[in-house]
Amino acid sequence: MNFTFDTAPNIIFRSGATQDLGNLVAARFSRPILLTDKGLIDAGLVQPALDSLKKAGLDVLLFDDVAADPPAPKVKEAVAAARDHKADGVIGLGGGSSMDTAKVVAVLLNSNQTLEDIYGTNMVNGDRAPLVLSPTTAGTGSEVTAISVITSEDDLKLAVVDNALYPDLAVLDPELTLGLPRHVTAATGIDAMVHAIEAYTNIHRKNPLSDALAREALRLLSSNIVAACETPGDIKVRENMLLGAMLAGQAFANSPVGAVHGMAYPLGGIFHIPHGLSNSLMLEPVLKFNSPNAAHHYAELADVVAPGSSGSDQDKCNSFIKKMVGIVEATGVERRLTQLGISHNDLPRMAEDAMKAQRVLQNNPRKVTYDDALAMYTEVL
Ligand SMILES: NC(=O)c1ccc[n+]([C@@H]2O[C@H](COP(=O)([O-])OP(=O)(O)OC[C@H]3O[C@@H](n4cnc5c(N)ncnc54)[C@H](O)[C@@H]3O)[C@@H](O)[C@H]2O)c1
Ligand SMILES: [Fe+2]
User: Ligand 1 centroid vs 58 CA: distance in angstroms?
Assistant: First the structure.
C-alpha cells in the first residue's frame, strides 16, 4: 500500500457558525476581503457574516461580484480589489465559484505570479495569504480541496491544483443551505455524488482513506438528496448533505475525478450550464461506458446506495447505475442537452474540448477517445 492524503487542517461544522465568523477568524487577519456573489447577497446570507466580522473589529472589504464558473478576467478583478484594500486575509463565502475565486486571490495577493503562471499542478510559488472558506452549497467540497477551477479566456475550464489551496479553516454552517433553491440543491448534490463515485474509481490514486470517505459521502448524499429537494427546510437533511459533500471533497482531493467531470467541463465552459447540472447530464452515459472496466467497483458502491442488491458484479453494477439514474430523475433536473439549447452541430466542438480535459480523463477507469465522447454526447442529446 502506498498513498498520501492531505486535507484542510481545521474544520468547524456547526449550525449558525457564520453568525460568529468574526470571532472564529479574528486571530488570523484584520483586513480581510470577503468574496461572494450577488445571489448570496439577495438570499440574505452575507449580511450576518459581515456584521459579525465588523463586530469583531475587522476592516472587511466586500467583493460580491464573483461569477459562476469564474471567468479569468473576473478573478483578476478580485485580486486587484484585494490589493487595493491591502487585504491581509481572504474569506470565500458561497458555492464553488466564490470559494475557488477566493483560493486564487489568496495565492496571488502577495505574489508576482500571474493567474496564467499557476494553471496546472504544483505551479504555485511562495506563501499565500490566510484563507477561510465557507460553503453555501452542498456541493463542490471546495472548502476541503486543493483545487480551483477557472474558466480561461478561450472558454476552457482550467484548474489550479496545489496544496497551497487548502484553506487554513473551513467553516461549515448547514443553516446557510436551508434556502438553496431546488434545482441548485439537486445539481450541486449530484456533483457531490459524482465526486464520491469518481474518487472511488480513480485508476492512479484510489486509496483507502478516500474510499472510506467516498462510501460514507455517497451513503449520506444518496439517502438525503431527494428529501433535500422535497423538504428543503429540514435542517437534519441539510446537515447530512453538507457533511456528505465535504467528505466527498476530501475523497476526491486525494483521488481526483474522471470522465463525468471531463465530459461535463465543455458544457460549463462553452454553454455556461451550471457545473452540477453538467455532471448530472453526463453521469448515466459515463457510468455505462465505464462498466466494462469498473463493474467490480460499482458493485461495491451498490452495497452503499442500494443495500440488498445481489447477484454477480455485473448484476450489482447494473443495480448501482439504475439506482443512481433513479435518484437523478427524482430530483427533477434536466436530462437532455437539447433542453439546454445544445444542438447536434455543437457536439464535435464539445468532444474536442473534452479531449483537452486530460487532467481528469487520465484518472478514468476506461480511456475516452474523441469518438467515445461524441457518442456519449449524442446519447444524451
Ligand atoms: N474546487 C473544487 O474542488 C471544485 C469541485 C467541483 C466544482 N468546482 C467548481 O465550482 C463551481 C460550481 O460551484 P457550485 O455548484 O457550488 O455553484 P456556484 O458557486 O456557481 O453557485 C451557483 C448559484 O447558486 C447560488 N447559491 C449558492 N448558494 C446558495 C444558497 N445557500 N442560497 C441561495 N442561492 C445560493 C449562487 O448565488 C449562484 O447563483 C464551478 O466553477 C465548478 O467547476 C470546484
Ligand atoms: Fe464537481
Answer: 26
Taking the domain 182-379, which CATH number applies? 1.20.1090.10
What's the CATH fold of domain 11-177?
Answer: Rossmann fold (3.40.50)
Q: Which residue has the cell 476552457?
A: 156
Domain boundaries in the chain?
A: 11-177, 182-379
**What span, in angstroms and rounded, lies between the C-alpha atoms of 15 and 190?**
23
* Ligand 1 binding pocket includes 98 (Cβ within 6 Å): yes
Q: Which atom of ligand 1 is nearest to the CA of 159?
A: 1
Residue nearest to atom 17 of ligand 1 (CA): 95
Q: For 246-263, how does the pLDDT look when each residue is reduced to its tens digit (9 = 90+)?
A: 999 999 999 999 999 999
Closest atom of ligand 1 to CA, residue 100: 1
pTM of the model: 0.97
Low-confidence ranges of the chain (pLDDT < 50): none
In the 8-state DSSP scheme, what is residue 71?
B
How many whole angstroms separate alpha carbon 152 and alpha carbon 144?
23
Q: What are the Cα distances from residue 87, in Å, to 126, 171, 248, 262, 276?
A: 17, 20, 31, 35, 32
pLDDT at residue number 345: 97
Q: Is 145 in the pocket of ligand 1 (CB under 6 A)?
A: yes
**C-alpha to C-alpha distance for 99 and 77, rounded to whole angstroms:** 15
The whole-number pLDDT of residue 157 equals 86
Helices 259-271 and 275-305: crossing angle in degrees, nearest 10, is 160
Q: Which atom of ligand 1 is closest in space to residue 37's alpha carbon?
A: 37
Q: 224 in ligand 1 pocket by Cβ < 6 Å? A: no
Tell me which residue of 263, 237, 181 sits closest to 15, measured CA to CA: 237
Q: Is 94 left (phi over 0), alpha (psi -120 to 50) or beta?
A: left
Query: Distance from first CA to last CA of the chain, Å, rounded?
Result: 42
Ligand showing the shortest atom-to-Cα distance for residue 260: 2
Q: 209: which 3 cell numbers?
A: 482513506
In tens, the pLDDT along 16-69 reads: 999 999 999 999 999 999 999 999 999 999 999 999 999 999 999 999 999 999
